[in-house]
Write a structure and sequence with these properties.
The complex is a heterodimer of chains A (110) and B (114). Helices cover 0% and strands 55% of the residues of chain A. Chain A is mainly β and 110 residues long. In chain B, a hairpin with a 2-residue loop joins β5 and β6. In chain B, strands 2, 4, 5, 6, 9, 10 and 11 form a 7-stranded mixed beta sheet that branches. Chain B is globular, with a radius of gyration of 13 Å. Classes of the chains: A mainly beta (110), B mainly beta (114).
């Protein structure tokens, strides 16, 4: 089946630093999503991407749909303590269901 | 507007017991699904439904049953709980694919099978 890989698995950064993470797939996708999960809560949608090469921002977050359609990237600028959580990517081809990556756990040190 | 509501939030079962995890959404979403989340494995699809009366299996359906009698509700049944079913379960819903937006998730049910 389709699988997504996310890197890094976890990261510790200082408050104020920028963050970069990525998601790769062995399959081509037509939609990429990025979610954030806070402890004890369900994932919340951050950004949706629909076209290869698309670059979309949501506040301090910027995500890109890779040109190959097999990857996507998420950047967070000037991190703050509330950015702590697990970030998931999800991809979908022509079906109805999304495939989720294993997540990147972000910790922000004051 | 409550979104996706899951109950209970926590549950402990003994091996062999049965139970139903409840999921309800008030957004008139056609699509509903159940995922389980295990450490290091992300979210894995158990079952999904594209409308009332229609269900289908996902990646890890064994040991779980679902039904969709109404648009709003999508319960997940564990017929005979096993320790391997210890996990956090999330229900999600969305409109059928229109090219826009992803799933809305509930806050999860943490299940422990002893």
């Amino acid at each position: 089946g389709q699988q997504l890989n996310q890197s890094p698995q976890s990261m510790f950064i200082q408050e104020g630093e920028d963050v970069s993470m990525n998601c790769t797939s062995s399959s081509i996708f037509n939609t990429w999503l990025w979610y954030k999960q806070d402890p004890g809560e369900g994932p919340v949608l951050l950004i949706a991407l629909y076209k290869a090469g698309e670059l979309t921002s949501n506040g301090r977050l910027t995500a890109q749909f890779g040109i190959t359609r097999k990857d996507s990237f998420l950047n967070i600028s000037a991190s703050i303590p509330s950015d702590v959580g697990i970030y998931f990517c999800a991809g979908r081809d022509y079906g109805q269901n999304f495939v989720f990556g294993p997540g990147t756990r972000l910790s922000v040190l004051p | 507007n409550a979104g996706v509501t899951q109950t209970p939030k926590f549950q402990v079962l003994k091996t062999g017991q049965s139970m139903t995890l409840q999921c309800a959404q008030d957004m008139n979403h056609e699509y509903m699904s159940w995922y389980r989340q295990d450490p290091g494995m992300g979210l894995r699809l158990i079952h999904y439904s594209v409308g009332a009366g229609i269900t289908d299996q996902g990646e890890v359906p064994n040991g779980y049953n679902v039904s969709r009698s109404t648009t709003e509700d999508f319960p997940l049944r564990l017929l005979s709980a096993a320790p391997s079913q210890t996990s956090v379960y999330f229900c999600a819903s969305s409109y059928l694919r229109t090219g826009s937006d992803g799933y809305t998730f509930g806050s999860g049910t943490r299940l422990t099978v002893v």
